[in-house]
Every structure is written in C-alpha cells, then in structure tokens.
Known about the structure:
CATH topology of the largest domain: Rossmann fold
Structural class: alpha/beta
Low-confidence stretches: 126-130, 230-234
Number of strands: 12
CATH architecture of the largest domain: 3-Layer(aba) Sandwich
Mean pLDDT: 84
CATH class of the largest domain: Alpha Beta
Radius of gyration: 18 Å
Order of helices and strands: EHEHEHEHEHEEEEHEHHEE
Number of domains: 2
Distance between the termini: 37 Å
Strand order of the largest sheet: 2-1-3-4-5
Helix content: 25-40%
Strand content: 15-25%
Amino acid sequence: MSSSTQSVLVVEDEASIASFVALYLKNAGYDVRTATNGADALASVQSQQPSLIVLDLMLPDIDGIEICRRIRQKSDVPILMLTARDEDVDKIIGLEVGADDYMTKPFNPRELVARVKSILRRAAPERKEPESAVLRHGDLRIDSGRREVKVGDEEIQLAPKEFDLLWELLDHRGLVLTRDQLLERVWGYTFAGDTRTVDVHVRQLRRKLGEASPIVTVWGVGYKVGPARDAVSA
C-alpha cells in the first residue's frame, strides 16, 4: 500500500501544531484528518479507521494515555504519541498501554514524517519472512504468516511491535542483540539514543508470556533468547 492511499489521524488541540504536522504529512502523500479532543478522536477512529494516529498526550477532555488504552481495546492501529514534557514516566506509560512510538515537542517535522513512514512500513501486511515461517521455543510458537503467538494451546495477544520484537529475537536465538540493533531492525530507525522503548516492550512480552518467555537480559548490552528456564520475568 502506498502512502497516497494511507490515512493519518492527527489528534492535537493546538491548531498551529496540528496544521503544521498535517501540512508535512500531506506533502508526503498521506490523507490527513485532524481532531482537537479525545471524544472526536475516538469517534474518528471508529468511523474512519485511519492507518496511523499521531496522538498528543495532553488534550482538553481525555488524555492521550487513556485514548491509547481505549483504542487498544479494539484496534492495533499504529500510534505515535506526542508529548510536550520530557518525562520518562509519560513515555513509559504511553508505550505500556500500546503506543508504538513517541516524540517530544518541539520536534523536527521531517523526523516525524520519517517515523510515520517507518511505523507504517513495519505495520504493513507484507513481511520479509515467508508466510509459512514458524518459530518454536519450548511451548512457545510464533507464526509470521498468521501473526499468531501461542503458548501451548493458548493464543497470546501481542501488540504489533511486541510481535516483531519477539520474532526478531527468536529468529536470532543464541545471539545477543543490542538495544540499538533492535530499534533499527524492529522500529526501522535509530531512536535518538533512547533505548527505553525496547526495555518497555520486553517487559510487556515477559508479562504476557509468563514462564514461557525466553528473553534473557545481557546486562549492559541488550537481550538474547536462551533456554526457557533462563528467562527472567519482569
């Protein structure tokens, strides 16, 4: 799917920022819609089903984290969160409730467009892995064609980036992957030196997979897949 057929919903209550972001996204070939509050944003997600959402954290009625949480109950649409505060807790909570990425204001609009392109490219149904590819690790089974993860007979619901991260680690089992490598391979870019995104997603994977999680922390370096008995729970 080309960018000209993809739509982006910009949820931002500051008109100048909304129009600024919309202009750059339109110039990149996206169909852009805007919402100035949480209620309108949720209604637009329901009726328009955008390809991606650029979501401001601070809105006049419903905050961005709550909007993200509600969207994730029904949809896996990619979400890029904007925050005016350089607060780690905001970023971590946003990622934990399902945001795919975040940017802190003020930001370079060209970088925002690059992030949008990268997120949409990674979320596209066309995968570099063969449709029939299946990886197993003990009771854990991950099917790239069906985008399905099972522990035994139980299906585990993962967010898109959680799935991609788990696949990348399992596909390179035995190797230690640094956080920067994982950011580049899973998110498709260098994340301005902030690797906390990877840590948050690993924490979520460990929580969802429980004892079946094969992810081992290599302190000061990154992560690897080891024997299931070596997995460290969050």
